[in-house]
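This part of the workshop introduces the protein records we will be handling. To make this concrete, we reproduce a full record directly below:
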Amino acid sequence: MKTVKKRVSKLEQFKKDIIKLKQEKVSNIDIVRFLELNGVRTSPANVCKYLKTIQSDLEQAKPKK
């Protein structure tokens, strides 16, 4: 049986930055602009999909009240 490697998102290297931006309530469009400044071409829809995959990390990173 072959082992299937899961594809790593090109956004993964910016995970901490994206989490920090979302904590600051930055829009997905502005996150796309940030990524473009760092040489990554993507769309707001792709950012949204990526955010869903890291949802548990986002919830853990939320500041406690």
User: Anything to note?
Assistant: The chain has a mean pLDDT of 90.
